[in-house]
Design a protein that fits this description.
Structural class: alpha/beta
CATH class of one domain: Alpha Beta
Membrane topology: Peripheral membrane protein
Helix content: 25-40%
CATH architecture of one domain: 3-Layer(aba) Sandwich
Strand order of the largest sheet: 6-7-8-3-9-10
Family: Belongs to the ABC transporter superfamily.
Number of helices: 7
CATH topology of one domain: Rossmann fold
CATH superfamily of one domain: P-loop containing nucleotide triphosphate hydrolases
GO cellular component, one term: plasma membrane
Subcellular location: Cell membrane
InterPro entries: AAA+_ATPase, ABC_transporter-like_ATP-bd, CP_lyase_PhnL, MetN_ABC_transporter-like, P-loop_NTPase
Length: about 240
């Protein structure tokens, strides 16, 4: 299998202007991911795991290193130096991101959120509606909520909607930042089922999980982080593709 993602010597710091101080978040990060793999990142809170994912998605801009992504649209592209237009395009069509939190435009319903994810990829409206309803049913989001605003949802409902919005696009690369953090066991099973389906269809995943049991027989390789650095890499018996 070819590599879809190669991260080399990546670093990221944050400046505390009021204290005139720089805080190193991550440094000397080297990660490689092959097409179709599921790679996990573990470590204590504050070890830098989420910063790695946000640098890949370019929510954060790394100070050093490279993030080579093998794009369908652009070929090999270093996400550190990609333009804003290229990043917006990649987020719409190739790279998905699931966080623990749902950030949405006000006065947008749950159904509209999921449909919009497909419409911005150029899908027809009827197909987008059908696929949106299918995935909302999968995550057992009550149909009475589909045309409601997510601001009124519980934490678990918001998280399920967030996952549905990212997964409905069937991205080539899916970044997962604690996607099962506040879900009950039944909802976790739904997430795992869809992850396994997406992997069987060729989606590559890089995810952060504190629930190590959830990763069993799913993860191909596990990177462990401590104090902003990778300290270990372990091959696991993943699902494989």
């Amino acid at each position: 299998m070819e590599r879809i993602l190669t991260i080399e010597n990546m670093s990221k710091s944050f400046t505390l202007h009021n204290l005139d101080k720089q805080i190193k978040a991550i440094e000397q990060i080297d990660i490689h991911v092959k097409e179709g793999e599921f790679v996990g990142i573990t470590g204590k809170s504050g070890s830098g795991k989420s910063t790695v994912l946000k640098c890949i998605y370019r929510t954060y801009l790394p100070q050093g290193g490279s993030i080579w992504y093998n794009s369908q649209r652009y070929g090999p592209i270093d996400l550190v130096h990609a333009s804003e237009r290229e990043m917006i395009d990649l987020r719409k069509n190739e790279i998905g991101y699931v966080s623990q939190f749902l950030h949405v435009m006000p006065r947008t319903t749950a159904r509209e959120l999921v449909q919009q994810a497909l419409l911005e990829m150029g899908r027809e409206h009827e197909e987008a509606r059908r696929e949106a309803e299918k995935i909302l049913r999968h995550f057992e989001l009550d149909p009475s909520l589909w045309d409601s605003y997510p601001a009124t949802f519980s934490g678990g409902e918001k998280l399920r909607l967030n996952i549905a919005r990212a997964m409905v696009k069937r991205p080539r690369l899916l970044l997962l930042d604690e996607p099962t953090a506040s879900l009950d066991n039944a909802s976790k099973i739904k997430v795992r089922e869809l992850m396994e389906q997406l992997m069987s269809e060729g989606t590559t995943m890089l995810g952060i999980f504190h629930d190590l049991e959830f990763m069993n027989n799913l993860c191909d390789r596990e990177y462990s982080m401590q104090n902003g650095r990778l300290v270990d890499a372990v091959e696991r018996q993943g699902a494989g593709v």
